[in-house]
User: Fold these one by one.
Assistant:
Number 1:
Amino acid sequence: MLHRHLPGFIEVICGSMFSGKTEELVRRLKRAQIARQKTQVFKPVIDNRYSSDHVQSHDANRIGSRAVDKARDILKLVDDNTRVVGIDEAQFFDESVVDVAQKLAYRGIRVIVAGLDMDFRGLPFGPMPKLLAVAEQVTKLSAVCVVCGNVASRSQRIAAPQGSESTRILVGAKDLYEARCRFCHEPDADAAMQATLPMSLGVSVAPPADEAEQRA
Ligand SMILES: [Zn+2]
């Protein structure tokens, strides 16, 4: 049954690491709670960097959340009287999260999705492109490039933990990644070298010329 009288829609908050996505998600959820709207928050189990039952940003702003194995589990866990559903770290879910968000919106629920739009290579991340396409509202946040100070849109991996090469499901805190702009971002940078060179030397300012052309 479609709930045409209910304001179901999808909002996506995307951007690089350190762009404040989770802070923005938490801000919107807290406003909904002030309005006495029941909220529920979900995130993939893979995001266990701080706490398994909270959505917590780098700035330690937190709100209760539930970790789920698969996006489909969300449909079963949303209560009848829930008005707002938050989904954090959505890039780590499989493609079915798109269908889940759509179904919730058709139920009349406000769905707020937060996630990385690009992985550390600067490529669209998992289901995020499709979520952006079907959303009613998209907010793209930016960080500050630690190399040149410009607006940063990319997440630069600066150290690869042992045994985790090739995986982009690398849930990082501040010591594994930094925000960079398009021109300072090095998708293929040698991680070990990056980790030993101080940023103040400006060793990574040169943009990969053909990389930009490939993206165009
Ligand atoms: Zn830069």
Note: Confidence is low (pLDDT under 50) at residues 165-169, 191-216.
Number 2:
Amino acid sequence: MKLNKLTISLSTIALALFLVACGDKPKEAAPTETAAPAVAQDPEIAKGEEIFLQNCASCHGEKGAGDGAAAAALNPKPRNFKAPANEWKNGNTVAAITKTLNEGIKGSPMVAYKHLGNENIALLAKYVEYLGKN
Ligand code: HEC
């Protein structure tokens, strides 16, 4: 009996969450679609963009130009991902960006993002490389 009640209330919560999540969707989806239609064609780039906007854009800027809201107060400045390779400390290849995200850059506001997990770091590295070329 107890278990049944628990199951019922859990499904009610799940249903409520589902409805809330659905209710929010149109609002969230709209800006992404208008802001970056080309990006959405590659699901990995689209996912990378989402993680980047949440974790990195405050410093690196929405397009990775190093001009996020916090950039003015930082020293050294956040990398502009379009900067030539010789201006990067670890480098602008996917492998080098992965190293930066796992280890951070010592003595700078660029901390390690290892906690995001390998999958998200791989998506981010691909997206940072993409921003460097687009
Ligand atoms: C608190 C501000 C801040 C945040 C947030 C931040 N960065 Fe940085 N990032 C920096 C700064 C500052 C540098 C430049 C470090 C230096 O030159 O020593 C940098 C450098 C880099 C570099 C270049 C490393 C190199 O080889 O020169 C990459 C790549 C990078 N960040 C990616 C990211 C990604 C991806 C995220 C989000 C997961 C992120 N950063 C979040 C401030 C930030």
Note: DSSP finds five helices and no strands in the chain.
